[in-house]
Write a structure and sequence with these properties.
Blueprint (H helix, E strand, L loop, with lengths): L2 E4 L10 E4 L22 H13 L1 E3 L8 E6 L3 E6 L4 E5 L9 E9 L5 E3 L1 E3 L3 E5 L7 E11 L2 H10 L1
Antiparallel strand pairs: 1-2, 3-9, 4-5, 4-11, 5-6, 6-7, 7-8, 7-10, 10-11
């Protein structure tokens, strides 16, 4: 993975423009957009945003209904079947969702109050609203997120 830094083209910001050159398969991609750190955000917040771009993840709006995601966190393996760009049938936690339950996926967080809406990102914590709990459920750190292919879904149904 490589990145280049150049002076920020916006105003006289002290932050460099960072252009990333990799995708989830670690292949070079020439046309990834650059992230320009925001001058009104702290260095820590800007670092988190850049790190989420490096680690990768998926914006839920880019997924078709019925897309199946496997989300491996530090402690559990979740399966999420997308219903729309903000809700899914999720399972994989022995207490909160041992069987699929319809939840609203709020997005991912770095463990504080800042949220990347409708995004599931590696190195972040998934946050979702469960119909039986008043406060949002926040998972442990996401280690990996991947879309299950149709063949993999058929194999998992046959194993049940």
């Amino acid at each position: 993975m490589t990145r280049s830094q150049s002076p920020c083209p916006i105003g006289n910001s002290p932050f460099p423009t960072v252009t990333l050159y990799c995708d989830q398969h670690h292949r070079p991609v020439a046309d990834l957009p650059s992230f320009v750190p925001h001058v009104n955000l702290s260095d820590e917040v800007n670092r988190h945003i850049i790190q989420s771009e490096i680690e990768g993840g998926v914006f839920l709006k880019d997924l078709a209904p019925e897309t199946v995601l496997q989300i491996q966190t530090q402690h559990h393996l979740y399966t999420a079947v997308m219903v729309d760009d903000a809700s899914a049938l999720i399972s994989g936690h022995p207490e909160y969702c041992p069987q699929p339950v319809l939840v609203a996926i709020t997005g991912s967080t770095w463990g504080g109050s800042m949220l990347k809406r409708h995004f599931v990102g590696r190195g972040m914590r998934l946050e979702f609203s469960h119909p039986q709990f008043k406060t949002p459920i926040v998972t442990s750190s996401i280690q990996d997120v991947r879309e299950l292919s149709a063949a993999a879904r058929l194999r998992s149904h046959a194993a049940v």
